[in-house]
Amino acid sequence: MDSAFMGATENGRYSVCGGTTKVIDTDGSPPITSFSGQEYVNRIEEYSEDWSYLKFSRLKDGRFYRVGPLARLNIVDSMGTPAADAALEEYRKKFGRHVQTTLAYNQARYIEFLASCERAVEILSNPSITSTDVRTPVDCVINNRGGVGIIEAPAWHAHS
Asked: Which residue has the higher pLDDT, 109 or 128?
């Protein structure tokens, strides 16, 4: 099944915790939309079906999208680390720039894992990782009863 894809990116680079959310169409161009977490409720609608406890989501225009490793590789221009970028280049030579093939998920997972390992080594090699200056004191309480969580998949859900 051909679908749109949604994932996070920081200026075209792979990201699992930051950047903007980008949605591309089945062929990858042009981007359907790009938005920040604060704009979630204006771009995505969540709904329920009588036959499931699952909360479903789709674009406000009714189109469905996929998330996960395949979506993230379709969204990004680079992984941001040398070995993962080389693996991404090889992957795209084999499958193309925008991949719908479900079997490519395994290779996409590998490329993400490789990027994560390279990034972990980079972070752990930084001397500031053992700094004692690691906490910003909270000086006020914000009484906000709602929020949007975006992480990893990215999986978006509004909570109120």
From this structure: 109
Instruction: Report how far residue 139's alpha carbon sits from residue 141's, in angstroms, rounded to the nearest whole number.
Output: 7
Strand stretches in the chain, DSSP E: 4-10, 13-14, 20-24, 31-35, 44-48, 55-59, 65-66, 147-151, 155-159
Question: Which two tokens mark 17?
Answer: 């915790």
Average pLDDT over residues 51-79: 91
Q: What is the pLDDT of residue 18?
A: 81
Handedness of CA 121, 125, 128, 131 (dihedral sign): positive
pLDDT of residue 142: 72
Phi/psi at 61 (5° precision): -85, 5
Say which amino acid occupies 43: R
List the single range of 29-38, 52-61, 114-123 with lowest mean pLDDT. 29-38
**Quick one: average pLDDT of 50-63?**
90
Report residue 5 as tokens.
């894809």
From CA 66, how far away is CA 3, in angstroms rounded? 7
Assess contact for 58 and 43: CB atoms under 8 A. no
